[in-house]
Amino acid sequence: MKKCFISLLAAILLVLSGCKTAVTAEAPNIRPRTFSEETQEVLDLIGDVYFYDFTLDDTLKSYTIDFWTCADGQWAHESVAMDNFSALKHACLGFQVLDEGIVLYDFNENGTTKMTSDIPLRPDPGPGYGIGSYHLGNEQAIEANREIILCQYLVSQSDGRIYTGELGSFAPGHYSAGTALTITFYDHPLEA
């Protein structure tokens, strides 16, 4: 068991050390990180772990990562993590969904930051309810001051169904509760 844990830890460190992006002249965007088959197999063993590369330009100065909860169809802002940057062009954001909360990793030219939240991202729907999940799975253009949903869980109403069109938005729908993790890039520095 100890050898398995050490091997798993070593694999995680290899994945995290590989979170460097190539310098290109792309428009600002965020996209899921692509890993080798072996690395992806290790990540699949760990569970709900997601990595996103983003490319920025000089118009973007800061970003926030926001956590949202929904009860009775009403979304409420729960917490936020933020960062200002001046010359950052490329970075990698990772997060792991755990039963007891979430762990965020920010890898960029200035170093690595780890943030944790004890608010569970994956809600417990209870008996008779269904749960649907969404994770950003394709490249998206980054527009200043526009929120992008990275991950969302929705708990169904009493019939136990989630409609696919409801995932990936905050629009009212056929759900009674939920959680979401979003990122927003801004065209101005943020104050703490």
Give a quick precis of the structure.
By secondary structure, the chain is mainly beta. It contains 2 helices and 11 strands; from the N terminus they run αβαββββββββββ. The chain has a 6-stranded antiparallel sheet, with helices on one face. A 5-stranded antiparallel sheet has the order 4-3-11-10-8, with no helix packed on it.
Biggest sheet strand order reads 7-6-5-2-1-9
Average per-residue pLDDT, rounded, comes to 78
- Could you tell me the number of beta strands? 11
Structural class computed from helices and strand pairing: mainly beta
Helix content: 10-25%
Report the uncertain regions.
1-17, 19-24
Strand-residue proportion? 35-45%
Main sheet?
6 strands, antiparallel
Can you count the helices? 2
The termini sit apart by 43 Å
Rg measurement, Å: 17 Å
Q: Label the overall shape.
A: globular
Give an account of the 3D structure.
By secondary structure, the chain is mainly beta. The chain has helices spanning 2-17, 37-46; strands at residues 29-32, 49-55, 62-71, 74-84, 90-98, 101-108, 111-117, 131-135, 140-141, 147-156, 175-186. Strand 6 and strand 7 (111-117) form a beta hairpin.
Features:
mainly beta; 11 strands; 44% strand
How do the helices and strands line up, and which of them pair or pack?
Blueprint (H helix, E strand, L loop, with lengths): L1 H16 L11 E4 L4 H10 L2 E7 L6 E10 L2 E11 L5 E9 L2 E8 L2 E7 L13 E5 L4 E2 L5 E10 L18 E12 L6
Antiparallel strand pairs: 1-2, 1-9, 2-5, 3-4, 3-11, 5-6, 6-7, 8-10, 10-11
Helix pairs in contact: 1-2
